[in-house]
Amino acid sequence: MKTIDDLGDVAGLRVLVRSDLNVPIDGETIGDDGRIRASVPTLVKLAKAGAKVIVTAHLGRPKGKPNPEFTLAPVAKRLGELLAEQNIKVHFATDVTGDSAQEAVQELDEGEVLLLENVRYDPREESKDEAERATLADELAGLADVFVSDGFGVVHRKQASVYDVARKLPHAAGGLVLAEVEVLRKLTESPQRPYVVVLGGAKVSDKLAVIDNLIEKADKLLIGGGMVFTFLKAQGHEVGKSLLEDDQLDVVKGYLEAAKAKGVEIVLPTDIVVAPEFKADSPATVVGADAIPADQLGLDIGPESGKAFAAEIAAAKTVFWNGPMGVFEMEAFAGGTKAVASALTEVNGLSVVGGGDSAAAVRQLGFADDAFGHISTGGGASLEYLEGKELPGLAVLEED
């Protein structure tokens, strides 16, 4: 993949950057600005080189039409605050490629940044029709001279601002995309061992392909979160009212057998935090993983399991973690996730937090970003890479 340096002198050029600024917002309050901060180094590099930087990004799922709930205006404000520290001015266009965008591009000075409104306001962005996507890509390309792909969280999507526009302009990968790919290659091609993978989150079905692929690569898989109950059920244990995917039981049994045959250990929790209801104030108790009462549901791995998982992580040289161990948003059910996160900060090697809810969890629980080897900005993209899938947004960057 070409880098920004391969583009040569960008002074005076209009550089279209696809960033990932999809952050949690409540009204105008940004809950976690991690993705915005992650986008800053590439934007600074280009602006300091004298480029006119035009940023396209999305927020949420506005379903192809303007919706004030998903405006990027609060993001533009926060980006402006961050770039002001580098004496870089940020402007905001109130549409994607319309009059506001056209005028703002015309008025943009070298070394300044322009953020376009939510690209998903335009239905062509996510269209399955290549011709429709191409027309939006043409309009985006018309705003710029070159394209830089820096939104790792969307490189697994074949979308106009990610895939199609790269085929219409000289292109390069931004610093964030390059850093993400470097880490993922270490996880898949040459991991230092022992290599431990920690998987959580709600559903086994969301992680089927990654489990299938990592059984071939990892030394141990630690399973927590809502998905663990399908594993426990597959072992013959009752799981009460816990989340369960009955249709995946045979698949999970197959994984348990395959892992055993390959000498890969699948580590399951030995105790579970349960409660009668999915509520923050529901009375929590700890029970054995093989003794979940019929009227209770599991909402976190138990304290002994947290210690056991932490010990496995501490002994590893490479750790990849995707998915919380429990309902970390509720204090009573955050202990397992906190134990895993804390253990990752002590890894003597590479520790990777695989984006999505895991990244949100470590920040909500008070951990600093630099306490980990790497926090991914793209949970879905990371998983698809680890599944062995081709990511369209990366593949197109390798085209001449």
TrEMBL record:
SUPFAM superfamilies cross-referenced by the UniProt entry: Phosphoglycerate kinase
GO molecular function: kinase activity
Gene3D superfamilies according to UniProt: Phosphoglycerate kinase, N-terminal domain
InterPro entries, per the entry: Phosphoglycerate_kinase, Phosphoglycerate_kinase_CS, Phosphoglycerate_kinase_N, Phosphoglycerate_kinase_sf
Associated pathway: Carbohydrate degradation; glycolysis; pyruvate from D-glyceraldehyde 3-phosphate: step 2/5
Keyword Nucleus: no
Principal location class: cytoplasm
Binding site for substrate: D20, L21, N22, R35, H58, L59, G60, R61, R120, R157
Class of enzymatic activity (EC top level): transferase
EC number: 2.7.2.3
Record's catalysed reaction(s): (2R)-3-phosphoglycerate + ATP = (2R)-3-phospho-glyceroyl phosphate + ADP
Highest taxon listed in the record's lineage: Bacteria
Record keywords, A-Z: ATP-binding, Cytoplasm, Glycolysis, Kinase, Nucleotide-binding, Transferase
Xref: PROSITE patterns: PGLYCERATE_KINASE (PS00111)
Subcellular location(s) of the protein: Cytoplasm
Binding site for ATP: K207, G298, E329, G355, G356, D357, S358
PANTHER family, A to Z: PHOSPHOGLYCERATE KINASE (PTHR11406), PHOSPHOGLYCERATE KINASE 1, CHLOROPLASTIC-RELATED (PTHR11406:SF23)
Subunit structure, interactors included: Monomer.
HAMAP family for this protein: Phosphoglyc_kinase
Annotated family: Belongs to the phosphoglycerate kinase family.
Protein's name according to its UniProt entry: Phosphoglycerate kinase
